[in-house]
Each structure stands twice: as structure tokens, then as C-alpha cells.
């Protein structure tokens, strides 16, 4: 967190260059969004980022690509993956602002911007998945092909939001979601990234308990995405 613009002290979206390895593109999906409305999630006029920030994001993605950074890591607050069972019950994700998500993913595809990773949180659970414009396309093709991957970190200590786990009870819930590689609602912990020019490895470290000051943490799951790919590979832990 830092003051990005002294004339606009509430603005937090900005980017950080880490040599030619990656650009951290940090968004604000809270301050500029339209009011949540389950009845209007498909309304093309609704925005999660606001006009200025959406334009800025596209500009930053182009700058990052053109300067030769290997990775573009978009850091933001809410889940971007499309979820069939959640959309009609919770508008507090990118599912609640479908036009904004379509714009971002379509821009990445149209401009051939590779090596994009989205980091998210807020749902107090762990997720890994691939981001496609339409992951539910009936046949493999342009629309269903992923353009980025998403890693979602769990809460450190706080519990799962009420009612969320009941929506995802077993593997049958994931079956209609081929782009969701993994989800865990049961554990608390954190997410760690190892970023190299060849790939990014994400590790979810879970705590055995939230009732002790220094609990043991263990790596529970790991996924890897190789440079030049938008496909997740489960890695050994």
C-alpha cells in the first residue's frame, strides 16, 4: 500500500516492475464498482473497475508486454473464475460483473498478451483454475482456451463465510467446471509463489490449527504454470 497520486489519496491501483521478471499490476475492485445486483450481473453497462481503471489496466498490460517482462501478475481482491452454482447467489465476485471480466480476458486474447497470472482472495478458501472467456463452451475452441490462470489464497485464521461450503459439497460440483483445477474450503493458511523466468509455482500452506500462536504449516497443494502456457499442472508437494 502506498500513496500513488497525492492529488487522489484514495487511489490504490498501481503497478510495480520487478526487473524484467514480472510486473505486479495491483487493482482496486472495491472503490469504483457498481452496486452489487444479482438481477443485473449480465448487464453490459455494469463495471467492477470503473472506466479510468479499466483503461489503465489495458495500458499497463500493453506496457508490460512491450517492455519484455516475462510475467504479468494481476493482484486484486475477488474471485475471477466463472462459477455456475455461485452466480445466482453471490454477486461479490467478477461473476457479478460479467462485462468487466469479458473485457479483460478478451483484451488479453486480442492483444496476444501471454503469461498472465491473477491473484485473488476474499472467499476465505483456496482455489486454482484457468481463466477463459467462455470455459463452458460446448466444444473445445477459441472461446474455451484459457488466456490466464488464477490462484486464490485462503484466510489466515478467519472462518469460511456462512453458507459457502454448502454450495460445494463434493466432486460433482466441480464436474461442470473443467477450468477449476482445485478448491479447498476446510483449511486456513496462506499462498506462496515461486516466480522464475521458466514458470510460476504456487504452494498452498495450511495450518493445523488456528488456536495456537505458532502452529505448524504444511504444504497441502501445489500447481505450476510454465512460461508461454495458460494451463495448470499439479505439482508434487
Q: How confident is the prediction overall: mean pLDDT?
A: 91
Helical element count? 5
- How would you sum up the major sheet? 7 strands, mixed
Number of strands: 11
- The gross shape turns out to be globular
Radius of gyration: 18 Å
Alpha-beta content class:
alpha/beta
Detailed description of the structure:
The protein has 237 residues and is α/β, with parallel strands linked by helices. It is 18% helix and 29% strand. Strands 1-2-3-4-6-5-7 form a seven-stranded mixed beta sheet. A four-stranded antiparallel beta sheet has the order 8-9-10-11, with no helix packed on it. Helix 1 runs parallel beside helix 3. The protein is globular and about 45 Å long. The two termini are 32 Å apart.
What are its keywords?
237 residues, alpha/beta, 4-stranded antiparallel sheet
Short description, anyone?
The chain is built from five helices and eleven strands. With 237 residues, it is of the alpha/beta class.
